[in-house]
Design goal:
Maltose phosphorylase, domain 3; single chain
């Protein structure tokens, strides 16, 4: 009993210290937060460990982008370190294995290249990378709570409400749902509280060091979220200014605006070495193309119901906040108690509430790309801070406030129960937690004494913890929402992303350069992490030249334009892209491009791959004897363009002394008849599918020794994707076209699907439409591309190639001997970062075929060299130097001139 009494006394002392303000309790508060965080996280995510799951999202971005990016960056940092230790101080800026060649900084900034934590990947081997990936998510989530507590300390808030707010923040819907899907989405949750502290100091005319530093870190880590953070702090600065300043507001507003802008610019300038190149990359990427604009002024009725209902409970996407039940009651009390000192919080809440209910603001916060709730981390921060402010009032509410809280519970329950659309297990669970929270609040009402507050806080903290754990378990549980099923198995994820038929064609002999394609990759980014030149890529920022290439060629395997899963085995594009080997897993009926002959078979685990070699493979640099004007080239459809490119190179301008030629288009458009059509008709520019699995049997007279294509002309699906299965005598294709309202739709209307090469003509296909749907479709076209001239054209292109090729780091070198004036085409997507020299003299690089690099050369022997520098890097380096100088001047100025620091006078 004595031991128990001692433990009780010690625990009482800890609680007493915890509920009193003061610097001496900060460390204890961090400790309490850490313990509670670990407990809640363990019981919330325990299903992952019990089921052998990693935090790598299996369905889309985790397996295909985030985890491969972590592996890539770890290798990249180690490569730089090894180079420096060996005396090589050249930093790789360009990788030929990234989607036919891409900039490293511009590609990987979105995936953590500028994130200071990502430097840890340099010391973790690939085989342990999944543990690092999981650990990063836990660490980032934990740190977001630490910075939240720091913000609470700055504003001198009570310790236990601060801990409660921090836990609500780090286990909010945004963090729980998107944090494990997109690990880097947690970073702004870490940065924003510190930026708020720094900005508040600037508004109070205190030292701006923290503000400048955090602007720098935020800008260098993610320009995407930095944009959102900028909007948030602009709003905060305006609202907070009028709360701080009571006299001479016009004069003080101008002065405050000047200070904030100068210090903000200083932070951005410091980040310039990465920030400027990334902004340039975004503006020149396939992602910057226009997306469709839908209704930006209102959601439908069901949307507004969900905004209210999903404000609490298990989060199912980042559009809804998914908070703990206590939050709603704190917000109600905020409006029932009109304390003037909390005006800033109320105004900010109203502003962000408007952001939630008007789609335009979600569109604006997403960079005017499409409507998205990725900005809600800022709203979660504000709401969690509202809990910190108003939790102390929750234990002494008036009778009127009890009535209002009861009304809120009833309103929430009415919407949940009476509407079929919202009457589901998830919402009923949220209602139960809300009702239970109301009962707990009523039971915790007490007089104003410290002991009562201490036990009240303990009880409410316990309830919050249970609520957060329940929310997470409801989301993850295999027997309820089963979100956990969307994540990769811990032991299989590494092998899965390295698994590719292309590995059977490796390694590439030293000193040679050619590309490898494969029938299918689980991960389109495999070439980069397996370190071989391929033709697929799936990262958010893709070189616009590469995106334009696939758009113009009507490649349906590039949807959206930054997710490129090959060229549909189109022979001409494979050859023009310098593909030498094509690897196919046995048992698949995929197309083999024309000219590719079986070379050998190779075992890959339990699978067997057949490797085909391209008899007409072109080197990295090949030459055209004639060119076509871009005006004429742009009038061709995608299939005609690939036929044209095998004969003449399309250039953006005419060149004196070089032969201009109109290509002889051999592509044939076929007449066809629809022999049988049940439940589907094509008329008046529309395809009407009136029943599921409707079929269209198309018959035509094919051409021998040709590739056959079906082309959907001017296809537009409105509100959902369009699907079609195309079956023929020896195989089939499953086609998908994105709908116009998809945020990833970039205006593509024409789609050409390769049905393969055959010596004997293909004469019929069956097109099956699995779902009832009506779409805009001008026509269905059938084409044959005879391959009779193909070998001759390919041989002409490689008759006088770039030889003695050296691909080293950021450079390409080679020699070429020409019998006449020709245009050298280098099969690397055009990028303004490339500079060329011929025989030691600078020359212009033209955009060849609207995708590759072209250099006109006169007859004779030439030494050609190309070097790459990330666009904007030099300007960015200068920017960082200027920003650093400004920062040092500011630091020294505040250190040496104490009279610079003074505060607003308050009444």
């Amino acid at each position: 009993m004595k031991v128990l009494d001692n433990m009780k006394d010690k625990s009482s002392k800890i609680m007493h210290d915890l509920y009193n303000k003061g610097k001496d309790t900060k460390l204890l508060t961090f400790g309490i937060y850490t313990v509670l965080f670990c407990i809640i996280f363990l019981f919330s995510y325990i299903g992952f460990w019990q089921n052998g799951k990693s935090f790598v999202w299996a369905q889309i971005d985790g397996t295909t982008q985030h985890y491969p990016a972590l592996i890539y960056l770890g290798k990249y940092f180690r490569k730089i370190i090894r180079g420096f230790l060996a005396g090589n101080f050249v930093v790789p800026m360009f990788d030929f294995n990234l989607g036919m060649g891409s900039d490293i900084i511009q590609t990987f900034h979105y995936y953590g290249l500028g994130d200071p934590l990502m430097l840890l990947s340099a010391v973790v081997p690939v085989k342990y990378s999944v543990y690092l990936y999981n650990g990063f998510i836990i660490l980032r989530t934990y740190l977001s709570g630490i910075t939240f507590l720091s913000m609470c300390f700055y504003f001198k808030k009570e310790q236990m409400p601060s801990v409660s707010g921090a836990l609500i923040y780090v286990f909010s819907g945004f963090a729980v749902f998107s944090g494990i899907r997109h690990p880097y989405f947690i970073n702004p949750m870490i940065y924003l509280p510190l930026i708020i502290i720094g900005l508040d100091k600037v508004l109070k005319k205190e030292k701006p060091h923290l503000f400048i530093t955090m602007i720098f870190i935020s800008a260098i880590s993610s320009f995407y979220f930095f944009y959102m953070i900028t909007v948030f702090i602009f709003i905060y600065a305006i609202v907070r200014f009028f709360d701080l300043v009571k006299e001479n507001r016009v004069k003080e507003l101008c002065a405050a605006f000047f200070r904030c802008v100068i210090f903000y610019i200083a932070g951005v300038l410091m980040a310039g070495i990465i920030f400027i190149p990334v902004v340039i990359g975004f503006l020149n990427s396939g992602r910057s193309k226009d997306s469709p604009i839908i209704n930006l002024f209102s959601y439908d009725v069901e949307g507004y119901k969900n905004i209210f209902i999903k404000f609490l409970g298990p989060p199912f996407n980042w559009e809804y906040l998914g908070m703990a039940a206590i939050v709603l009651f704190c917000i109600v009390i905020m409006f029932t108690r009109r304390n003037h000192k909390y005006r800033t919080i109320r105004v900010l809440f109203l502003i962000l509430s408007i952001f939630s209910i008007v789609p335009f603001f979600s569109y604006m916060m997403n960079g005017f790309g499409y409507v998205s709730g990725r900005w809600t981390f800022g709203f979660a921060l504000l709401i969690s801070f509202i809990v910190v402010e108003y939790l102390p009032y929750i234990f002494q509410i008036t009778l009127k406030e009890k009535g209002v809280l009861f009304f809120v519970v009833c309103l929430y329950g009415t919407i949940c129960i009476t509407d079929k659309a919202t009457r589901n297990v998830s919402n009923l669970f949220s209602l139960a937690m809300l009702a239970l929270c109301f009962v707990v609040i009523l039971l915790l009402q007490h007089e104003d004494n410290k002991k009562s507050f201490r036990y009240g806080y303990s009880a409410i903290a316990l309830f919050i913890g249970i609520n957060l754990i329940a929310n997470c378990n409801f989301l993850f549980s295999p027997t309820i929402s089963n979100y956990i099923s969307q994540f990769e198995n811990q032991k299989q994820v590494l092998g899965k992303i390295f698994d590719t038929p292309a590995s059977s064609a490796l390694p590439i002999p030293k000193g040679e350069f050619y590309r490898i394609d494969s029938s299918t990759n689980i991960v389109n980014n495999i070439p980069a992490i397996r370190e071989y030149p391929g033709i697929s890529i799936y990262y958010s920022l893709v070189n616009s030249s590469l995106a334009d290439m696939h758009y113009e060629l009507e490649n349906w395997r590039a949807q959206p334009l930054f997710n490129i899963s090959g060229v549909d085995a189109r022979s001409a594009i494979e050859t023009l892209s310098s593909v030498r080997y094509f690897s196919l897993e046995t048992g698949r009926n995929d197309n083999i491009p024309f000219g590719f002959v079986e070379s050998y078979s190779k075992q890959r685990g339990k699978k067997t791959d057949v490797v085909y070699e391209n008899r007409y493979a072109l080197p990295l640099g090949y030459t055209y004897s004639s060119f076509t004007s871009m005006d004429k080239y742009s009038q061709l459809n995608g299939l005609e363009k690939q036929d044209s490119m095998m004969q003449s190179v399309a250039l953006p301008k005419r060149i004196e002394g070089f032969t201009e030629k109109e290509p002889n288009i051999t592509l044939k458009k076929l007449e066809y008849e629809i022999e049988a059509s049940k439940g589907v008709r094509l008329e008046d520019g529309k395809l009407v599918v009136s029943q599921d699995n409707a079929q269209m049997n198309i018959k035509f007279k094919g051409i021998e020794n040709s590739e056959t294509y079906i082309r959907f002309k001017n296809l537009e699906a409105d509100d959902s994707p369009f699907y079609a299965s195309i079956n023929f005598q020896d195989g089939g294709k499953n086609f998908k076209a994105l709908e116009k309202q998809s945020p990833w739709y970039f205006g593509q209307k024409n789609y050409s699907i390769n049905l393969g090469y055959r010596t004997n003509p293909l004469e019929s296909i069956i097109v099956t439409f699995p779902k009832r749907k009506t779409i805009n479709l001008e026509d269905i076209e059938i084409y044959c591309q005879p391959m009779d001239n193909y070998p001759i054209n390919a041989e002409l292109l490689k008759s006088e190639p770039l030889e003695n090729i050296k691909v080293l780091g950021n450079t390409i070198e080679g020699t070429v001997d020409l019998s006449s004036n020709k245009i050298l085409c280098i099969s690397i997507p055009w990028n303004s970062g490339w500079k060329a020299k011929v025989d030691g003299k600078d020359v212009e690089i033209l955009k060849a075929n609207n995708m590759f690099m072209g250099i006109p050369l006169v007859n004779g022997h030439h030494e050609v060299s190309l070097s790459y520098t990330t666009p904007g890097l030099k300007l960015g380096a200068l920017s960082s130097l200027i920003g650093l100088i400004i920062f040092l001047v500011v630091v020294l100025g505040y250190k040496n001139k104490s009279n610079l620091v003074f505060k607003y006078k308050k009444k």
